[in-house]
Amino acid sequence: MPMQTHYCPQCGSTLQSADIDGQTRRRCSAPGCTYVFWNNPVPVVAAIVEVDGAVILARNKGWPEKMYGLITGFLEQDETPDVAVRREVREELGLNSTIAHFIGHYTFSAMNQLIIAYHIPTSGDIVLGAELADIKRVPITRLKPWDIGTGPAVRDWLASRSPA
Questions:
Q1: Which regions of the chain does DSSP assign to beta strands (E)?
Q2: What residue stretches are annotated with the Nudix hydrolase domain (predicted)?
Q3: CB count, 10 Å around CB of 107?
Q4: Residues 154 and 93 occupy one common structural domain
Q5: pLDDT 10s digits, 145-164
Q6: Which of 124-150 are b and which e, b meaning 16 or more Cβ less than 10 Å from the residue's Cβ?
Q7: For residue 103, how many other CB atoms are within 10 A of its CB?
Q8: How far apart are CA 118 and CA 68, in angstroms?
Q9: Total number of domains constituting the chain
């Protein structure tokens, strides 16, 4: 869902549609103000958390009962993606890891996100963070990728584990 911005964050005037470099963009209507809302994608880190031969899938408190996914979160200012993904795993599962294996980057147009995915092998006792309602442990042999969001990262990670 594209973000809807109606007012200029620099001067408060309304934004209007305009052709800029061959694309329709929202720009400030005030004379002399040069603000353009570019609607750049938001970087999000995703973790395939592996514990004892299983991948941890989590259900956010705001999600439907049967919806589970990877551990994800936003990059914070001055954070690199590998540091951010390890922080998210620590915050959401209470697990520490010193290793983050890069899997790939994926566009998620529906949420205007750029997903930066990692495999995080770790161990220990899981303690759910404040955002999570539940987790489930899926044996790697039973893990199936899904079509959108972080699913392509799961697909690529599983493919990288298979002998060629």
A1: 15-20, 23-28, 36-37, 42-51, 54-60, 71-74, 101-108, 113-122, 132-139
A2: 40-160
A3: 12
A4: yes
A5: 999 999 999 999 999 997 75
A6: eebeeeeebeebeeeeeeebeeeeebb
A7: 22
A8: 17
A9: 2
Q: Are residues 7 and 35 in the same domain?
A: yes
Task: Please give the share of the chain, as a percent, with pLDDT higher than 70.
Answer: 98
Residue type, 30: A
Eight-class DSSP state of 2: -
- Domain span holding position 7: 1-39
Q: What is the DSSP string of 117-159?
A: EEEEEE-S-----TTEEEEEEEEGGG----SSTTHHHHHHHHH
pLDDT at 1: 45
The residue whose two tokens read 């007012």 is 7
Joined together, the tokens standing for residue 12 give: 């408060």
Tokens of 19: 């052709």
Sign of CA dihedral 148, 150, 154, 160: positive
pTM above 0.70, yes or no: yes
What is the number of residues in the chain? 164
